[in-house]
Amino acid sequence: LRQYSHEWDSELASEAGALHDSSSAAIAIDFEKCLRCGRCVTACDTVQDMNVLGMAGRGRERHPALITEAMSLSKCISCGQCAAVCPVGAIAERSEWREVLNQLDSKRKVMVCVTAPAVRVAIGEELGTGPGSVTTGQMVAAQRALGFDYVFDVNFAADLTIMEEGTELLGRLRTAWGLEPPAAADDDSSSSSASSAGRQGHQDEAAGRGHHQGPGPLPMFTSCCPGWITTVEKSYPELIPHLSTCKSPAQMMGAVVKCYFAAKLGRQAEDICLVSIAPCTAKKYEAERAEMLREGEGQDIDYVVTTREFGRMLRERRIPLASLLEAPFDHPLGESTGAAVIFGNTGGVMEAALRTAYELAVGQPLPKLEVAAIRGLAGIKEAELTLPDDAPPGLAGRSLRVAVASGIGHARHLLQAMHSGQGPRYDFIEVMACPGGCIGGGGQPKSRDPLVL
Ligand code: SF4
User: Fold this and answer.
1) Residues in Cβ contact with 191 at an 8 Å cutoff, skipping those fewer than 6 apart
2) Among the options 283, 284, 381, 446, which is catalytic?
3) Which ligand 1 atom is nearest residue 283's CA?
4) What is the pLDDT of residues 346-393, one digit of tens each?
5) Which of 233, 339, 342, 381 is most exposed by smallest CB count within 10 Å?
6) Which fold does the domain 2-94 belong to in CATH?
7) CA 236 vs CA 205, 232, 233, 350, 400: distances in Å
8) For ligand 1, what atom is nearest to the CA of residue 443?
9) Does a cis peptide bond (omega within 30 degrees of 0) precede residue 332?
10) Which residues pair with 152 in a beta bridge?
């Protein structure tokens, strides 16, 4: 079945005129190819752990029409786990790879490619070099061979995220610890101030442990994962102020390329076609969000193609990834640190942000860079970090409690425990929608079994 799914992908069926539902920005469904195996429904229920589709049974009675129903009921978070387990491509990511090849062929625009951390350890698997093989240099060479003018790395923006999110966390903590006065209310916000206070009470109730007012409430939640953002918006809107204000690394990269890099080239944003290669189907939806549009200039990221779609592009152009000589990313947006690389795993964003917040607070790096307690594939992980006695006045001996959840179901359990008052009082929580984080994303190769994670 796995081989079958590689050969019979969604594009082939839709081009043949089969029944096709592409009402989602992330997912397309072809009912004629459905085997009624029910894997999609099981994956959806497993990831969200809430019987999203309202069906008790499993197996042949479960049909992707139920996924459509979930979308229409606004329960879909675009994570694409249904597409990742469909053995025949009846459910697949909304295809954009042919449009990208057309753009490359037309040579009308400056073609820029950016790649998420989790793709470099998966594209080799998609093309037969074995699971987990790191093919960063060959991947860059393949992107050049496709015709991209510039090949940059989303890891650059992951480092920006680390600096922004670590600084934001430290600001919220300093206010919570009474080291900084709460930010002054906006001049025009006497009414919004009141509504903010009203919201705060609600947040505390919903988060169970929300325990401070100021530049942003605690616990702070990461904001890198569009599947998690959609979950908050649809199921826990009272938690919105708890989300970090940072864009995801991919969208930060989009803004940097369309502003900074366009100016460096002496071009306008619309002269550049930016293609993001991601493990994620939700990023297709994220790129189209109203907040990500440049006024009068369209999207920051023009196309999002998944790891699987990237593999199709290379097969279509007969580019042999494994036998290419390694090539480096372009400067200056191809530079990054080791902290950016771990963004692809559950706990990676948290670990990277903790390193930065610690160094900003104490003035020296974390003595041991790996925060072992938040590594690994467990659904919920916790850790406590205590600042040293020689930290600046007011910070010495302070402790920071963090939690990491991967899979929306685990995040729901964490929130329930917090709401009931059973769990500890957290300061910072990372949530990634997919099992194991982005390495288990809905756009990754199908030769794995995500339900095992
Ligand atoms: Fe996308 Fe990663 Fe979130 Fe999955 S965990 S929805 S791959 S950002």
Assistant:
1) none
2) 283
3) 1
4) 888 888 888 888 888 888 888 776 677 777 778 899 999 899 998 888
5) 233
6) Alpha-Beta Plaits (3.30.70)
7) 12, 4, 6, 21, 24
8) 7
9) yes
10) 114
